[in-house]
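Q: Hi! First time doing this. I have a protein sequence and I read that you can turn it into a structure. Is that right? Here it is:
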Amino acid sequence: MALIRTAPVTAPVTALVTASYSRDFERCRLLCESIDRHMQGAWVHYLLVAPFDVALFRQLEGPRRRVIDEREILPFWLRAVSDPFSGGGRKMWLSPFSLPLRGWHVQQLRRLGLARLIEEPAMLALDSDVVLLRPFDPAALWQEDRLRFYRKDLAITQAARSNHLAWLSHSDSLLGIGPYRLPTHDYVNTMIAWRTDTGRALLDHMETRSGRHWVRAMTASRAFSECIIYGRFVDEVLGGDGHAPNPRPLCHVLWQAGDYPAGREGLRRFLSELQPDQYAVGIQSFLAHEPGEIEALLREAA
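A: Yes, that's right. Below is the predicted 3D structure, encoded as structure tokens:
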């Protein structure tokens, strides 16, 4: 696997990383347009997609944006096929070593695996449903040699959803730590930064512990969160080395239906609560807000 090389510049280049798929294409287009308008400094944007989505997403490429086929990142034995129970409209990923995976599983694997493919020292992950609203220079993520690290202390409690507890349990065995105790830290957001060298160290750690390819180790369970795995690796394996924890999210996120009133008025209220130290909004794609509606409201709020 050859490293992707970018032209040398005076400031460190940040890798903006988005894993996406065809049904989120219009949302991803909004994200790309907002990045081109507001992202400052030295950056390159990688769009990580499945083989059958490469041609579609090539439309979004430019001097600072590249589409990467997941086959450059993931092992040959993990392959996408049509889901026979969906009439061919959905895909599943089959492996001889795990239960079938869905797209949200594989998007996480792409983001983690990219660390072995690039040279940029930092990876700023932005989900497809994020839109940048204010100027942001990712060089501000660094505090000398430490990278800003999203961590909401003791935010996962006994009242957490069962999937959070399953993610924690799997990360215990995957990383050789724990067992986790509640309350514990939450590391999940839709705009978070990772050190690329730490990402590589994490993949190496999983392979050394399991004696298997890191994808095979991770997918031993389908209950995983790459944000939880990376976060716990930093805190409980590396002792926080190279990272500066910060509880303030860079992105204001609408996580679920019911958090705000339905319709445009709810979205307006959500947008009005963007804090001065937040640079983007994330409106989960499974909520009933179409990209055109979001785009119109963002223009109205500008």
